[in-house]
Amino acid sequence: MVREEFVWQLIKDEADWLVKSEPLMSEFLQRSILDHSSLLEALGHCLADQLIDSQWTSASLNNIIREALESDSQIIMNACLDLSASFERDAACDKYLTPLLYYKGFQALQLQRVANWFWKNGRNEVAFFLQSRMTEVFHVDIHPGAKIGSGIMLDHATGLVIGETSVIGNNVSVLHSVTLGGNGNKKGKRHPTIGDGVMISAGAKIIGNVSIGEGSKIGAGSLVLKSMPAHATVVGVPASVIGVPLDEIPALNMNQNLDV
Question: How many CB atoms lie within 10 A of CB 248?
């Protein structure tokens, strides 16, 4: 298990090194990371700074975000695992601080985790407000009611839509323009359930109350309208199983080839 203290120390060490090697960034790094005593404080600041507009100051937004972070320690633990997921799976990510400061997929996911805390506690107006700002700022729309596990990487993330009753397991990787959408206007479970270790490639659409089994790979641009088994490679419009992925857990290696 990744410990918050270990991740936070890594981030501070990276920030210290960057202050020396890139002085032009020193004020930003000081304000965003080095002025804070914990990952919780830094995450609250970074999210609030992204969401400010003419009606909301960073301090006001930070108060909202910190309430959830301080009330549920699992949010920060999940953030640590999500940071590790980006560092380990994204070839373009060479520092732990990079997703925290710059990756909108990571930032949008943490904001959803905050919104989900308000949602679960019956404070829907706050949750919807955070979802609205997420959509405007990050071009990512994740309903606050969606249930999302840990070790998640949302790569690029632009155009990502995840509906209210979606369920996503642990160690899942999702690329841009993916939709986990509903089917029909009836209440109840109407969005997909994604198993552990699944990789969903760019532009894939998974619609309705269907299940994607653990360790499966969904090919780019696929339209999935029915449940798929575990450890399957799925591709096409409509999608079908074409074989078994070479990787036991496709989400970890991010191999988007359709070799089976």
Answer: 11
Q: How many other CB atoms sit within 10 Å of the CB of residue 150?
A: 21
**Closest to 221 measured CA to CA, from 164, 169, 170, 175:** 175
Mean pLDDT of 118-141: 98
Arithmetic mean of pLDDT, 38-53: 97
Tell me the H-state helices in the chain.
4-21, 26-29, 39-51, 58-71, 73-89, 97-102, 104-120, 124-138, 250-253
Rounded distance between C-alpha atoms, residue 247 and residue 41, angstroms: 37
- Checking if the pLDDT of 133 tops 90, the result is yes
What amino acid is encoded at 18 in this protein? L
CA distance 50 to 63: 14
- Domains of the chain, by residue range, sit at 1-140, 146-260
CATH superfamily, with its number, for domain 1-140: serine acetyltransferase, domain 1 (1.10.3130.10)
Q: Is the pLDDT of residue 224 over 90?
A: yes
Lowest mean pLDDT across 100-104, 145-149, 235-239, 245-249: 245-249
CB 212 within 8 A of CB 228: yes
Q: Are 255 and 246 spatial neighbours (Cβ–Cβ below 8 Å)?
A: yes
Which CATH code for domain 146-260? 2.160.10.10
How far is residue 47's CA from residue 61's CA, in Å, rounded to a whole number? Answer: 8
pTM of the model: 0.96
